[in-house]
Amino acid sequence: MQVFYDDLKRQWRIQINVGTLKKVRRVFSEDGKPFDLLDPHLPTRLANDPALFVDLLWELVDKTQNPGVTPEQFAEGLGGDGLEAASEAFIEELFDFFPKARRDLNRAIYANVKREQDRIITETIQQINNLPINGEKTSSSDVTSSPESSE
What are the residue boundaries of the structural domains of the chain, listed by start? Predict the structure, then answer.
């Protein structure tokens, strides 16, 4: 069971088991076919559709922790950091559902993907920070050289 906090500091527990798989299949469908939590393309689909992810998450969280919270109020607590925390908890809980060998394989793949994403983000930020502003040159030789004389 994984835990996350939403943006309103409410704690939520997620649990994925055969019972929740069956529940999700009953509640969600796509083109008349049951929604499958074990679909290998699901993480990408959910990352591209936060509203679908939050609807799915609502079916997986322990609602007894925050009685009286409606699906709309739940969704209002998920943006930015809360959504990221929920995503991480969901992925970890999904990994925990599988037997050890597959769980270890999934975690290794995910760790490599995260490392690559972090590297790309870091490099992109560095490139953005090195962009010239208003025609300024930003190479290291330009920064250390003295201004040209106007003779």
Answer: 2-104
